[in-house]
Design goal:
The protein has 20 helices and twelve strands. The chain is mainly alpha-helical. Helix 17 packs across helix 19.
């Protein structure tokens, strides 16, 4: 006998939820889930509910809760109901809904859908091992399903505290996953499961469906790691419907794993999974979200760069690929660089602001020159991968002397560099500093005087003036730095070469 969940009525408005736990720093897999829910809701002019799963007092923290909300705001993923917004189904933190869960558990037990289980961990482990040895499924065997009053009294006398288990129906559960198609689970593979810990704390397996039912959630889009719990939750929805606590079972869509190095699932412990890493490096929210959307979905076969609005217009959960998606940092950086190029110049200059100040900037605040920054910014915009790159690219403008990068010095200052620099200084001294092209011609002429092409000739000049072999366009940089400071730095380099 098979069972299909009660469908969502066709005239129901789309209601999805994002329900993170406030533990540790937000990670990119969590953000990808939030993004797909947000895009799905916005595409259908639906409602996104933000709900905080903070029932684990040992791991949850207010610091993480604050960081979660701040991260969502930074990303531009707004919510329609939830913390700081309100809505018709408060409260939106599960730690404040305990009375509701206790009442639901009481009603489930009274109706025979749940029962107390007194089995110890050691007893459960022994029975599982015996089942495996006999080739049987090793899930919970229903030992406490039909306890007598005498058995309950005996367990209580031993000082045992029961967990509460949900009684799974003896039937196949079938549903159509929005990403994976039709899936079926036989009863022997979905045993009775815990919904309340022995200490009375409700588990995710209970609170999530109860809240989804109470808040009228129509579609649940979540990670593939939760797929095995879906038949359990569908059975719980049937029980809640029978009790008048749910009207339907939401549609489920399980998003593909995000894989890291070595084809292993990206975990919170992987450095590249931390959202804070991308914020500190200066990823644009639009660039990061663009890349994360490609982890399981695509805009089109020939286009990888697009805006959030364009994603919303085109997003279809049916287009999400069920296969695991690999996180590629290089591609994420390349897409972010494309978004930097797309910024309005004024918006780019403003976005770089945090990295032009302490603690990122190595120069004194009074040495920052706004006019010089505005002049060099257009050249920087075409070269940055992440915004934090700006600091090292423009420090030559604001430091009294260029940074001493020994690797750059060793690479550029070869035999004969002193002669080249003397000629370059002479040519630059006579050049027209109102024109980058004139400065280029001066260095080109210096190189020709020593039998060098422009690329070889400009390397010692670049290191003398900026401190590094790689950076912004040299001749525009020279012009912004100015004649006096540029020539003084060449003189300093010549003195160092003279030893």
């Amino acid at each position: 006998m098979a069972s299909a969940p009660t469908p969502v009525p066709a005239d129901s408005g789309i209601r999805v939820r994002f329900c993170p736990s406030p533990t540790g720093n937000p990670h990119v897999g969590l953000v990808r889930t939030a993004l797909f829910n947000w895009a799905f809701a916005r595409h259908h002019q639906g409602t996104l509910v933000l709900r905080i799963e903070d029932t684990d007092a040992a791991r949850d923290s207010e610091e993480s809760y604050t960081a979660l909300l701040d991260s969502l705001r930074w990303l531009g993923l707004d919510w329609d109901e939830g913390p700081e917004v309100g809505g018709p189904h408060p409260p939106y933190r599960q730690s404040q809904r305990m009375d509701l869960y206790a009442d639901v558990v009481r009603r489930l037990k009274e109706a025979g859908h749940a029962y107390d289980c007194y089995c110890s961990t050691e007893e459960l482990d022994a029975r599982r091992e015996a089942a495996r040895a006999a080739g049987r499924p090793s899930g919970y065997d229903g030992h406490c399903r039909e306890l007598t009053a005498a058995q309950v009294a005996a367990y209580t006398a031993e000082g045992r505290s029961p967990v509460v288990r949900f009684r799974m129906p003896d039937k196949v559960i079938t549903f159509t996953d929005l990403v994976r198609g039709e899936l079926s689970f036989s009863p022997e593979n979905v045993p009775d499961y815990g919904i309340v810990r022995a200490n009375g704390a409700p588990l995710y397996t209970l609170v999530n469906p109860v809240d989804d039912a109470a808040m009228g959630i129509t579609h649940v889009l979540r990670g593939e790691d939760l797929l095995s719990s879906t038949p359990r939750q569908i059975a719980l929805y049937e029980a809640l419907t029978e009790l008048g606590l749910a009207k339907y079972t939401p549609s489920f869509g399980h998003l593909p794993y995000v894989m890291g190095e070595g084809n292993k699932k990206l975990s919170k412990r992987d450095p590249e999974s931390s959202l804070n890493l991308y914020r500190e490096r200066g990823f644009l929210p639009e660039g990061l979200l663009n890349y994360l959307s490609l982890l399981g979905w695509s805009f089109s076969a020939d286009r990888d760069v697009f805006s959030k609005d364009e994603m919303v217009a085109k997003f279809d959960i049916g287009d999400v690929n069920a296969n695991p998606a690999r996180f590629d940092l290089k591609k994420a950086e390349a897409i972010n660089a494309d978004h930097i190029r797309l910024l309005d110049p004024a918006a780019f200059a403003e976005a770089c602001g945090p990295w032009l100040q302490a603690p990122y900037a190595p120069w004194a605040p009074e040495d920052f020159d706004e006019a010089a920054w505005q002049a060099i910014a257009p050249y920087a915009q075409t070269r940055l991968t992440v915004l934090s790159d700006i600091t090292a690219n423009v420090d030559f403008l604001f430091l009294p002397e260029p940074a001493d990068d020994e690797a750059s010095w060793a690479k550029a200052m070869k035999e004969g560099s002193d002669a080249l620099l003397r000629t370059a200084r002479e040519k630059l001294g006579d050049a027209d500093w109102s024109s980058p092209e004139a400065l280029k011609e001066a260095v080109l002429a210096a190189g020709e005087a020593h039998g060098l092409k422009l690329g070889k000739a400009q390397a010692p000049v670049r290191v003398a003036v900026t401190g590094r072999t790689v950076g912004l366009p040299l001749f525009e940089s020279l012009q912004v730095l100015g004649r006096e400071r540029s020539l003084a730095r060449i003189d300093r380099a010549l003195a160092r070469l003279a030893g």
